[in-house]
Amino acid sequence: MFFDINGLSGKNAYKLMASIVLPRPIAWVVTMKEDGELNAAPFSFFNVLSGDPPVVALGIGHRGAVKKDTRLNIERTGEFVANLVSEPMAEAMNITAVEYAYHVNEIDQAKLETTSSVKVATPRIVGAPVALECRLWKEVDIDGRRSIFLAHVEGVHVADDAVIDADKCYVDGFKLDLIGRLHGAGWYVRADKGFQIVRLPNPE
To answer: Flavin reductase like domain: from which residue to which, for each copy (predicted)?
Structure first.
């Protein structure tokens, strides 16, 4: 079936895109407010776009007519930490997805702990199997209500038991126990299955 995106409402276009690009990794983004208080929120319009140099993209829309806290904080500080979500942390992540008022600290609401980052002032979430310390490179405004944030990854934290060979940067992805977003509200997937296909040699 063909869907003409130009003929769909914004709501239906969102539902369609969110239902077919699967699974989507979740960036559990921590940012810092003006007074040093923290904000945490999950975003599944997120991915790595470049490996050398390492660049990630994060899509953030408005909350109604108001910019989301994460967007305000990134625009002000120019940095954020993208934590990846393991299945044991899914419930805590879900708590931080609530649209609290700006003064509410989602870290406290979810009873999470944070620890210092190395390259940025914003801390990372204790227990997250992966944390990407990110510095904003470029904000791309889409339509006045949504922006794509492109950021350089300044440092990466990976759970020790998932690192196979630190010198060669080999990581066992299954040991990260990550989850991703699926179609529809509340649907997630475990990244606990996989298959391997050996790349074919160049015919030349």
So the answer is: 19-172
